[in-house]
Amino acid sequence: MKSDIEIARSIELKRIKHVADETGIPREGIENYGRYIAKVDGNLIDENRVKQSNLILVTAITPTKAGIGKTTVSIGLALGLKKLGKKAIVALREPSLGPCFGMKGGAAGGGYAQVLPMEKINLHFTGDFHAITSAHNMISALLDNYLYHQQENGFGLKEILWRRVLDVNDRSLRYIVTGLGPKSNGLTQESGFDITPASEIMAILCLAKDEADLRRRIENILLGITLDDKPFTVKDLGVAGAITVLLKDALHPNLVQTTEGGAAFVHGGPFANIAHGCNSVLATKLAMTFGEYVITEAGFGADLGAEKFYDIKCRKAGLQPKLTVIVATAQGLKMHGGVKADALKEPDTEALKRGFGNIDKHIRNLQSFGQTVVVAFNRFASDTDEEVELVRLHCEKELGVGFAINNAFAEGGAGAVDLAQLVVDSIGKTPSAPLRYAYNDEDTVEEKIEKVATNIYKASMVTYSTTARKMLKKIHQLGVAHFPICIAKTQYSFSTDPKMYGVADDMEFHVRDMVINRGAEMLVVIAGDILRMPGLPKEPQALHIDIKDGQIEGLS
Q1: Residue of 217, 342, 328 lying closest to 281 (CA atoms)
Q2: CATH classification of the domain holding 298
Q3: Do 135 and 111 lie in a common domain?
Q4: Nearest Cα to 283, choosing from 491, 438, 126?
Q5: N vs C: which end of the chain shows fewer Cβ within 10 Å?
């Protein structure tokens, strides 16, 4: 089989204006970024049509380094629905350069289930990530400048809560000192970088409903605490207008196409292990305005991505998904059943059965939100018929949920028809109930954390560091305890230990720190040893990315 990038190059792309025409998007509402990409005006959203659309969430079992294929399933489902004659649109996040040049090599799907043009989507795309990075660091520069010039007037911050960001995995930038050298270089102070997907600006862009809301949220960003214990915000800095200007174009969702010429919105890119893990509300609602069925995904496993999709994105945007698809693989289940990474391709039905606990817990969690759930099984060449049948019987007979094999990677839309039919039938017969959130707005922050930790992760206790306790006090003092929580933890386990596979049981959930995202209107709860600036692996994908004879290689 051809590589992902070879498949992508082999497909004759439609002009993006024709994709818009076929989708019903008026040409006056799009701005071309070349022949095959366009920005779409968010003002085209029709809330009545949004309510009539069928929103489908794609999530997954706890991921492993063997891969699960959630994006491929999301795109494949859109292709399969199109094969059934349905008007389907997929709405995804934008890839980050960090993982593209680090672990993944790309995040635009795979095989014959991709969004195109994949090279541009995986690289600089329409510049959204650069705009977010620039806007975030512009605030940092303006804040440093304000502190430098106002110190003679007696102004200062006893605590700075704003870090810098960069869309590169760079462990050396996690903790730094700025302002070294002569006095003219600014105030000497400790600082650090997070990766751009963790930026509060990223979250704000993904949650804002329009330009006015974007500006309001930017004004509310908490930068620090003054010497007299008052919050100091971007509004106090007086630069919200300038920051909004930098984000004006980035706010508009991006329209591209699938490998079979269907419309796809790709916009925003927060990670689910360190942020809220969902694409923009604007992109999702635009897709729902013009699509009968809309497929979106939330990052990593259901414990991280799906929970935040329901509790943050849906809660704030008023969205009601009709169905949730959970993606599973035999290799992933076997790893959760105790098989080593180098033996996952070997048949092992007993390990597969031991791994069922992971998918069982995820499905029970999803059902607790009122969701109708079906399983999409990504089949690999090494999977035996016996293994596939075991998973099918377990899902259909023991769990009572729908099951379908997804072969979109190898076959495109034709390989996802069974999954698409299952989705249509499930929505038609037993659509999801109205969302039941994991916690209430009026719950205390501690209650919200405890409910997610004990019910979703199966923790037996929640503990707090001294730093986290201090932040809890600050949260209550600032009157933001009603915000939803966004838990940052390892994606490889229900617990805070990345090597605790399967289902965590009787474990301590330790809260190390908390971050107040006053503009994004959520509280980031940092649990365990998770870092918001990843490092590069020993052999980063950058070693395999090259350009030869004008053609890019190494992206996937």
Answers
A1: 217
A2: 3.40.50.300
A3: no
A4: 126
A5: N
Residue 550 lies in a domain: no
- The encoded tokens of residue 294 equal 């809309």
Statement to judge: residues 234 and 184 lie in one domain: yes
Task: Give residue 1's pLDDT band: very low, low, confident or very high (50, 70, 90).
Answer: confident
For the beta carbon of residue 314, count every other beta carbon within 10 angstroms.
21
> 35 in the Ramachandran plot: left (φ > 0), alpha (ψ -120 to 50) or beta?
alpha
Domain span including residue 490: 445-527
- Look at the block and give the residue holding tokens 């509280």: 523
Q: What is the pLDDT of residues 268-323, one digit of tens each?
A: 999 999 999 999 999 999 999 999 999 999 999 999 999 999 999 999 999 999 99
Cα within 13 Å of Cα(57), Cβ side: 33
Band (pLDDT 50/70/90 cuts) for residue 515 is very high
| Residue 51 near residue 322, CB atoms below 8 Å | no
Strands 254-258 and 263-266: antiparallel
CATH label of the domain that carries residue 242: 3.30.1510.10
* Sign of the alpha-carbon dihedral angle for 400, 487, 305, 4: negative
Domain-embedded: residue 404: yes
3-state SS of 1-40 is: CCCHHHHHHHCCCCCHHHHHHHHCCCHHHEEECCCCCEEE
CA–CA distance, 90 with 283 (Å, rounded to integer): 10
DSSP labels, 357-393: HHHHHHHHHHHHTT--EEEEEE--TT--HHHHHHHHH
Number of domains in the chain: 3
550: left (phi over 0), alpha (psi -120 to 50) or beta: left
SS3 assignment, position 122: helix
List C-alpha distances in Å: 248 to 80, 127, 135.
35, 12, 11
Q: How far is residue 541's CA from residue 205's CA, in Å, rounded to a whole number?
A: 28
The pair of structure tokens assigned to 273 is 């292990």
Place of tokens 């035996």: 384
Q: Is residue 438 one of the residues assigned to a domain?
A: no
477-498 in b/e form (b: 16+ CB < 10 A) is eeebbebbbbbbbbbbbbbbbe
Question: Sign of the CA dihedral 327, 330, 332, 337?
Answer: positive
